[in-house]
């Protein structure tokens, strides 16, 4: 769909959009993640991280910088991602809502990883209730993957949209972590209804991976 000239002009003036271009990040969303990492230090050097909904790769770039040469980032998205110039990353093309998603990831990921992040969003329809419902569905799929692959004591960050389904999701989310934080980074547009939920200290149940 062709964007209006006013929308394009607003985007050009966006501080973080400009900053992303200057610093070589693929999206302004990179600054949301970097701000959360700076505040909560939930990703560290040498960590193995899964980045769900990674396209176009802005979050992946920040994660690569954070984990350093001894860490690794697994970028997962239903859309292909232009390769990043880093030996510390791998791309997995996958629909995380598919019935075979976890089975497929079992072949691609380590048994347990240190951190999982999810900035995944649906294609926006313009009908808020529908978009919110779809986003929560994606959030639930991300949480299921986290329960399978995150190590005990690991951390999980996920984007959510505000709406009627959010509180039940957060209540379920809290059951799995020692601490939960609700965050709206400075880089988020003031008009946006998106929030980030950070789970610290995953409480892994004793389940054997098949």
Characterise the protein shown here:
- With 210 residues, the chain is of the alpha/beta class.
- The protein has a single domain (26-202), classed as Rossmann fold.
- The protein is built from 7 helices and 7 strands.
- The chain has helices spanning 5-13, 15-23, 29-40, 58-67, 101-108, 128-149, 166-174; strands at 48-52, 72-77, 89-93, 113-118, 150-161, 177-183, 194-202.
- It has a 7-stranded mixed β-sheet, with helices on both faces.
- The termini are far apart.
Question: Which features characterize this protein?
Answer:
210 residues; alpha/beta; Rossmann fold; 7-stranded mixed sheet; 24% strand; globular
CATH architectural designation: 3-Layer(aba) Sandwich
Instruction: Give the percentage of residues in beta strands.
Output: 15-25%
The helix-strand sequence is HHHEHEEHEHEHEE
So, the CATH homologous superfamily?
Vaccinia Virus protein VP39
Chain-averaged pLDDT = 87
CATH topology: Rossmann fold
Radius of gyration from CA coordinates? 17 Å
- This entry's quaternary arrangement is single chain
* CATH first level: Alpha Beta
Strands, count: 7
Number of domains: 1
Most strands sheet = 7 strands, mixed
| N- to C-terminal distance | 44 Å
Residues in helix, %:
25-40%
């Amino acid at each position: 769909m062709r964007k209006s000239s006013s929308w394009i002009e607003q985007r050009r003036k966006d501080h973080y959009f400009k900053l992303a271009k200057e610093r070589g990040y693929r999206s302004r969303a990179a600054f949301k993640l970097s701000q959360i990492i700076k505040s909560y230090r939930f990703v560290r050097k040498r960590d193995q991280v899964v980045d769900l909904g990674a396209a176009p790769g802005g979050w992946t770039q920040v994660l690569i910088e954070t984990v350093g040469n001894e860490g690794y980032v697994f970028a997962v998205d239903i859309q292909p991602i232009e390769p990043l110039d880093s030996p510390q990353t791998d791309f997995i093309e996958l629909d995380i809502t598919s019935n075979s998603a976890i089975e497929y990831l079992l072949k691609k990921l380590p048994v347990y990883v240190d951190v999982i992040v999810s900035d995944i969003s649906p294609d926006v329809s313009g009908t808020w209730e529908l978009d919110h419902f779809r986003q929560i569905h994606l959030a639930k799929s991300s949480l299921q993957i986290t329960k399978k692959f995150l190590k005990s004591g690991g951390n999980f960050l996920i984007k959510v949209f505000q709406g009627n389904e959010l509180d039940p999701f957060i209540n379920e989310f809290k059951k799995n972590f020692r601490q939960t934080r609700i965050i709206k980074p400075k880089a988020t547009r003031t008009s946006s209804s998106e929030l980030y939920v950070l789970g610290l200290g995953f409480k892994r149940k004793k389940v054997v991976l098949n």
